[in-house]
Amino acid sequence: MARRSRASTAEDLMDLVALLPWWAGISLALLSYFILHAVASAPLVLSGARQDVGQLVTSSLWRGLAYAGQFILPFICAIGALASALHRRSRRALVDSATKSKAADALEEMTWRQFELLVGEGFRRQGYTVSETGGGGADGGIDLVLGKGGERFFVQCKQWKAFKVGVTVVRELYGVMAAGGATGGFVVTSGRFTQEAVTFASGRNIQLIDGQALLELIRDGRTARRSEGTHRARPLASDAAPLSDTPSCPLCTGSMVRRIARRGSSVGNSFWGCSTYPSCGGTRPV
């Protein structure tokens, strides 16, 4: 999905703060103000010695930068905190709108940015930590990085209204997963997938989520929150229910799921891993 270009370092910093909780941005604003204010207010020590002239100039320069920074940096952090709060509110509004809709048509009316926010919120409600990467250019790269149980998962979001997501997209994600050491991946679309894409993803720890499945994912997350854990949401990726022909764990005799090696000589290769990892580290070759 297309991304806007960065205009300045201040904008980059603002976007970075916006990824944090709003209260963290406010804390950074206050902390930066007090530190820089202390530097700007520190008295200059004049000894009159000629060798101290250079030190005096340097100290004056730092004081000048700190004086300006004590207003600029907290302002940037405060704007980032405001953006974080607005993003959170926007995500909640998107979730409410999507869950009230009875069809996936609501997803097609969203912008790509709204769709990406909705996908991220859906995974958050399934217990994942979500980091927005900003993608890799025009409709390329990884949009979200998920974390759960010490494992990483890559997500590509495709808000395509007129076309089905083909096998090329899934192949690209699989390659990035191997290169980046991800345990699994997700391709999420507002539309549908081709049969070739479904066939390729099968057995490769890549889950394809179409528009209707995404709505169910979000609704499951809302139900799980409201019931305070009495309802278990539909499992994803490493928590997925095993296939009927999967082996049992050699250590705990539990079920196993297919994973991808992230390190060592077998990096990028598939293997069977215990579904209770990291509690159990049992493995079997594929």
Global mean pLDDT:
77
| Sheet/helix structural class | alpha/beta
The strand order across the widest sheet is: 1-2-3-4-5
For this structure, the quaternary state is single chain
Q: How far apart, in Å, are the first and last alpha carbons?
A: 35 Å
Number of helices, where a helix is a run of at least 4 consecutive DSSP H or I residues: 8
Count of distinct structural domains: 2
- Can you identify the CATH class of the largest domain? Alpha Beta
Estimate the global geometry from the Cα principal axes.
elongated
Q: What's the total count of β strands?
A: 8
Order of helices and strands: HHHHHEEEHEHEHEEE
| Share of residues in helices | 40-55%
Organism: Variovorax beijingensis
InterPro entries: Restrct_endonuc-II-like, Restrct_endonuc_IV_Mrr, tRNA_endonuc-like_dom_sf, Type_IV_Methyl-Rstrct_Enzyme
Pfam families: Mrr_cat
Protein name: Restriction system protein
